[in-house]
């Protein structure tokens, strides 16, 4: 007989999410200390971030979280076809997010704002710290987003093949939880980096 | 029910039954007992390497001045000695070995909650250890920062710090996944009727440990990544010349690395709590107090980290708060010691090797703990900070505590794991050598530390010579003890062990030795009036 414990699997996922929050928590702590050390410089440097793209990405991620939640409901109702569509929308949102980030980072790199660049070494410590934190935090978030997208792709294939179905969908739920985490971290990154000017 | 499990004739976990045979059967196993054994062998190899590095350092310190090798080599030795001993030996230590082999059986489970994740953790452990050790042979020379990787030196040194740091990061990830696995296992797979307060105390200590692993390790993970980013990208998080804050690094590092001490010591306390009732045939005294003190140590221990930084520059308020919390964490630790001693009172004590090692643990742990209070108080801390007093203190905790508890555990569960007994006389002789050697090795360090011998120094003033020489001979005696112990344990020709050679009451003694692959034929159930330590 196969051992199966859906509650256990979800508990495991929640514990894993705690660790992820603490991983980013360390970064938020560094951000807080540096913000208090260099409040003026952070204030000015934040003007260089593109709030418009940031806002669009926030909306995109919120939509993607909603569609993941909808795909779970669809599977619970036995409608796997619709669940696949919702997951596809989620993945497209992830793609849009990455494309926006590509342009955002690309622009910064184009004007010479990246670690070790000739421009960066001439800036004051506070600005360098801000842009370093910007790249480090959004970079680590992007890494998590890509991992989440890969997980959701695998899950989508399983939904399509009906190995995930109305009687057995804990993997989809866990994938959804992870995706919400990716979303939630962005919800904190966006105001801290873009809006506090 | 008990009878059926006792006479279960299914083949033991040591014989291959799956589709693979031999080495492949071990490398692809998801059996918690096999994974635990693989961890044990790996840890033993790293431990021996670490011990030899330690002995080499003692050899250099036999006389003042340079004897055999230079200061840079010495710095490399204490760095890799620390990295090996901390990250690959004592942090995983008892939890991954006996937590894997014994804990699921103790709570009446067939395996951990996520067996494949368990194997994955093991491979991450091996990968992380390999990366950390590769720092010795690749790049621009062995790291010389000490195992703490303090900024800004870890950013400026030209040695191969990145490999060591990244190895520690991967080892941390392995530790997180093990903790996660144990939390879910203990929540979900306890035998029916076994509530949290009917669970044996070794699983209790592992439960507290697992929460620290999960909640503290990510902080050091991100900190180590920041060190790598600083070295590669010249981001100045911690480097003051780039506007960073080195004290911030120390905070982030110790937020993990102090709780890590409790990751090491809590399972050790759990082992001692199992051994003492068995060899005194007494019900454990203060079951609830011991269980809850594990949680208390885990939660208070999370908030004492800055006592490593009293001399680094902190506000007075921060210093006395952290000092107070440090004293508070001594209380639950002492609660355990009092409970162990009280359990022995009027018991029928049977001094077999595991019990002897457990006594050794209590003695050494008490010296380690009390000397910790000397450093926890603000004034004396300034005096002994960064002296060999500190070295003696944490070796009493980590080696005298965790190490001796590990030896106690291996002597306690050896018959269960291998189905054979070992030679008691040799085990006792090993204990006497280890105990004597240990005290000769580390006690003089307290004394010369008080006199002002700094830690991590390659050279020293002539007045410390005698202390270092006693330490050297202690190290040799300790090494002899280790050799006797390992030879005794490796010689697997002892008489066959019965299912319950010590008269233990926990569930692992209700199944054959060595256990069958599935542990239980009939899943155990805990009755309404049953208790975990039902001795007289």
CATH level-3 fold name of chain A: Four Helix Bundle (Hemerythrin (Met), subunit A)
Percent of residues of chain B in beta strands? under 5%
Number of domains of chain B: 1
| Topology-level CATH name of chain B | Cytochrome C Oxidase, Chain A
What ranges of chain A have pLDDT less than 50 throughout 5 or more consecutive residues? Answer: none
Judging from the principal axes of the Cα atoms, what is the shape of chain B?
globular
Question: Helicity of chain B, in percent?
Answer: 55-70%
Query: What is the CATH domain class of chain A?
Result: Mainly Alpha
Overall pLDDT metric of chain A: 93
CATH architecture of chain B: Up-down Bundle
Distance between the termini of chain B: 22 Å
- Corresponding CATH superfamily of chain B: Cytochrome c oxidase-like, subunit I domain
Detailed description of the structure:
Chain A is an all-alpha fold. Chain A is built from seven helices and no strands. In chain A, α3 (51-76) packs antiparallel against α4 (80-110) and α6 packs antiparallel against α7. Chain A is elongated and about 60 Å long. By secondary structure, chain B is mainly α. In chain B, 66% of the residues lie in helices and 0% in strands. Chain B has 18 helices and no strands. The interface between A and B is medium-sized, with 33 and 36 residues.
């Amino acid at each position: 007989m196969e051992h199966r414990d859906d509650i256990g699997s979800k508990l495991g996922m929640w514990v894993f999410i705690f660790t992820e929050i603490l991983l980013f928590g360390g970064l938020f702590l560094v951000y807080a200390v540096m913000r208090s050390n260099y409040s003026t410089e952070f204030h000015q440097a934040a003007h260089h971030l593109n709030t418009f793209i940031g806002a669009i990405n926030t909306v995109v991620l919120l939509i993607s979280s909603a569609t993941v939640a909808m795909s779970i409901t669809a599977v619970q109702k036995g409608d796997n076809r619709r669940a696949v569509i919702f997951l596809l929308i989620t993945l497209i949102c992830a793609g849009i997010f990455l494309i926006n980030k590509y342009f955002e980072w690309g622009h910064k790199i184009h004007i010479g704002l990246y670690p070790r660049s000739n421009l960066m070494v001439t800036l004051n410590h506070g600005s360098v710290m801000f842009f370093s934190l910007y790249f480090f935090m959004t970079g680590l978030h992007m890494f998590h987003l890509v991992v989440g997208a890969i997980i959701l792709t695998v899950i989508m294939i399983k939904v399509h093949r009906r190995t995930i179905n109305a009687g057995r969908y804990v993997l989809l739920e866990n994938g959804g939880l992870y995706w919400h985490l990716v979303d939630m971290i962005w919800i904190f990154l966006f105001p801290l980096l873009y809006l506090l000017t | 029910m008990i009878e059926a499990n006792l006479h279960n004739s299914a083949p033991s976990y040591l014989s291959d039954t799956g589709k693979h045979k031999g080495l492949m059967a071990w490398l692809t196993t998801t059996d918690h007992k096999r994974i635990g054994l693989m961890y044990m062998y790996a840890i033993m190899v790293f431990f021996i390497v670490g011990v030899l590095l330690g002995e080499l350092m003692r050899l250099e310190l036999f006389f003042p001045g340079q004897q055999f090798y230079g200061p840079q080599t010495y710095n490399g030795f204490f760095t890799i000695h620390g990295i090996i001993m901390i990250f690959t030996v004592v942090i995983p230590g008892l939890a991954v070995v006996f937590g894997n082999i014994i804990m699921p059986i103790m709570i009446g489970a067939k395996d951990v909650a996520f067996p494949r994740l368990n194997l994955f953790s093991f491979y991450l452990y091996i990968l992380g250890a390999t990366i950390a050790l590769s720092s010795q042979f690749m790049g621009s020379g062995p790291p010389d920062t000490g195992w703490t990787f303090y900024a800004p030196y870890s950013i400026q040194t030209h040695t191969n710090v990145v490999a060591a740091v990244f190895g520690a990061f991967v080892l941390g990830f392995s530790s997180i996944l093990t903790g996660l696995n144990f939390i879910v296992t203990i929540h979900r797979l306890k035998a029916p009727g076994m509530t949290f307060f009917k669970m044996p105390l070794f699983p209790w200590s592992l439960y507290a440990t697992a929460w620290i692993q999960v909640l503290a390790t990510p902080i050091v993970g991100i900190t180590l990544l920041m060190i790598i980013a600083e070295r590669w990208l010249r981001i100045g998080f911690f480097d003051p010349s780039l506007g960073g804050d080195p004290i911030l690094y120390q905070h982030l590092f110790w937020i993990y690395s102090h709780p890590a001490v409790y990751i090491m010591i809590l399972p050790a306390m759990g082992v001692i709590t199992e051994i003492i009732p068995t060899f005194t045939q007494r019900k454990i005294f203060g079951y609830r107090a011991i269980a809850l003190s594990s949680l208390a140590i885990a939660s208070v221990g999370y908030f004492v980290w800055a006592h490593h930084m009293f001399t680094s520059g902190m506000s007075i308020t921060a210093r006395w708060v952290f000092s107070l919390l440090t004293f508070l964490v001594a209380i639950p630790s002492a609660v355990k010691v009092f409970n162990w001693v009280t359990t022995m009172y009027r018991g029928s004590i049977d001094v077999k090797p595991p019990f002897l090692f457990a006594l050794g643990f209590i003695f050494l742990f008490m010296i380690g703990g009390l000397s910790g209070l000397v450093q926890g108080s603000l004034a004396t801390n300034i005096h002994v900070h960064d002296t060999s007093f500190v070295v003696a203190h944490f070796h009493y905790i980590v080696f005298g505590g965790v190490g001796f508890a590990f030896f106690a555990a291996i002597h306690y569960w050896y018959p269960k794991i291998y189905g054979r007994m070992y030679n008691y006389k040799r085990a006792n002789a090993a204990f006497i050598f280890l105990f004597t050697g240990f005290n000769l090795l580390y006690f003089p360090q307290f004394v010369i530390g008080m006199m002002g011998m700094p830690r991590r120094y390659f050279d020293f003033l002539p007045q410390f010579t005698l202390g270092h020489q006693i330490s050297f001979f202690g190290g040799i005696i300790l090494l002899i003890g280790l050799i006797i112990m390992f030879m005794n344990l490796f010689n697997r020709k002892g008489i066959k062990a019965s299912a319950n050679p010590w008269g233990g009451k926990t569930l692992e003694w209700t199944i054959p030795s060595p256990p069958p692959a599935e542990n239980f034929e009939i899943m155990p159930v805990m009755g309404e009036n049953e208790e975990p330590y039902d001795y007289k």
